[in-house]
Structure formats: structure tokens, C-alpha cells
């Protein structure tokens, strides 16, 4: 007996990119302290008032089957938030609640992809993107963004491979680079989508983490609301990663299809979690700013450290909880550097190669530990890079 091709080929015959992370976790299990700068997990837990509301809702009996598209009050709150943030009128009928952003990504692609269709995505990319597309029966095709362009994708590069494709996945603010796509970049992407009749799937889970400039949802651009599915999540904005609560925003007809998909897959999200998400959204933008502030602060601290050396380069990160660092001056690949840094100093970072070919020679640093320890780790990282470069 064999697994289906859909499951057995999710990794495309290659690595899943998590080897350094897994090695770091093995070291921790064995009793070796490791400074983890790998995954986008807040160093704070979900706020006590949110958990208390979740507890209240569970004890109050909201533990049975909940409304599959999402409880009405939560869908209304998400629609209101999206309308206020993007300027695009949004109703509950445009909202489908999902078990987290990853589920939303899979659902969105399943909704627009037929088996064998080409699904485009930008390299560098979040590590699960290619597998998500394969799981949705797509043929993934990466489009390289260039470090020389600060990883802003070029519309011409997308257009060159867009003929016959079905969808394009973009992510701004971007994981892994921390880049926020400019209006010019997004308008170029929108033009390609309209010219080649592409669905645009926009992963906007970091929309509250903007350090410079502005977040523009491509759904707000002319002619794009009817062809865009937006993925959102409470994970990053409210430190609710383990609660698994997210959403897809899209045209009403597509949301109806997504509801049918949920009915036959996950059957919705637990009611007490939805209640807690509603409570969290009602805490307002000040709370979201509070959750994001440590990453803004650490980004500034890291820039100060990096300004004091000339070996490690930094991609201009205007958002998200990550920095993409250029370590090519060491003569090492991102993976070689990451493993060597882990062995030498017990500091775990993600190799750029975990996020695609475009990020080769880079590493991704997650700004997810306490300030003093983070600054110390950044100094050690830079000193290690200087040692390896021979400067």
C-alpha cells in the first residue's frame, strides 16, 4: 500500500528547510541551552484577558459545533477591521473563518486551483508555500525576486511566466525578508493579474507589523477586489499562534465555495476560540500595537549592532518580526553558516536557502527573544561572521 501522490510529493522530493531548527531542538532536548532565533513565535504568551475570555466561553458551553463560516459577530468584526484598514467595503459574506492562516492558504488555493494548474509564488517564500500548493494539486512555479531590488518582485518577471497560470501568491509584509511591498510593486502585480486573468492570493498575516511606510492590501487596488483572496490571522497580531484562528477575505461567491470546503474538511473552528478572537479584536489597535512593539524595538537594536560592522549586510526590513542578513562575505552558504553558528555559539538561525534559491547566501533572524539576549546574540553572530570572512 502506498500514500497518494498528493501527499507523498508535498516536499517535491527535496528538503523541507527545517534541518537547523530540528537540530537546535534536539540540542535543547539533550540539555544544551540554545538561543533560538528561528521561528516566528512571540516570546510572550497570549494575553491573560484573552485566555480568560476563552475560558469563560468554554465554561459557558460554547464547546459544541460552531458556525462553520464563523460566528456572525466575529465575521462582522473581521469585516469591520478590514474595511477600516484597507478602505474596501467588506461584509460578513466576504469572510470565512479558518483554523489559522496556514489553513486559509490551503483553502484559498484549493478554491481556485484544478489539478495540474500552475500556481505562481515569489521566491524568497515562507517555507510551507510550495508544499501547500502541491497539497492543493497545483504545479508550483517560483518567481525569483532579487536582493539587488531589496527583494521587491518585478512585474516583468511575473508576466514572463504568467501565461496559462491560475494564481499568484504574494506576502507583504514578507516572511522571510521583512520587506514591505511598495505601491509601485503592488500596482505592477495587479496589472499582471488583470492582464493574465490570475487569482491573487495575498498573505497579509503581518499587516500590524509595519516599521516604515505603509501596508497596502492589493485587494484595495482598482479592479482587484473581485480577483483577490486575502489571508489573515490572529497569530502574529494578537500572539495567538496556538489558538489557530484566521480567515480568508474574498468575493461572496468564492466564500460560499469555501464554506462548502470547510463543511467537508475541518467543519469550522471551536466556538470558544472564536469568542476569544472576537474579544481580542475588540481590544482595538492599541493592543495590536503593544503586541508588535517589541519587534520594532529589536529591529532598531539590531540595526545599531549591524551599523558597527562591515561584514554582515541587511535587507531593508520595513515590517514583520524578521531580519534577512547577507552573510555571503564569509564565503559560506546560509545553511553552512547556520550550522556552524549553532555548533560554535549555540545560536540557531534559519538558512536563507530554507526560503528558496533567491535567499542563498543569507540567513533569517527572528527577533523573538528578550532584548538583552537578542543584542548579545547579534553581536556574537556578527563577530562569528567577521571571523569566518577573515577580515
Automatic annotation (TrEMBL):
One GO biological process term: amino acid metabolic process
What EC number(s) would the UniProt record show?
Answer: 2.6.1.-
Keyword rRNA-binding included in the entry's annotation: no
In Gene Ontology terms, what is one molecular function of this protein?
pyridoxal phosphate binding
Protein name (Swiss-Prot/TrEMBL)? Aminotransferase
Q: Domain named Aminotransferase class I/classII large: which ranges?
A: 35-370
Provide the species name: Sulfitobacter donghicola DSW-25 = KCTC 12864 = JCM 14565
Determine the domain of life of the protein's source: Bacteria
- What is the taxonomic lineage of the source species? Bacteria, Pseudomonadati, Pseudomonadota, Alphaproteobacteria, Rhodobacterales
Q: Which UniProt keywords apply?
A: Aminotransferase, Pyridoxal phosphate, Transferase
Tell me its cofactors.
Answer: pyridoxal 5'-phosphate
Q: Does the keyword Transport apply?
A: no
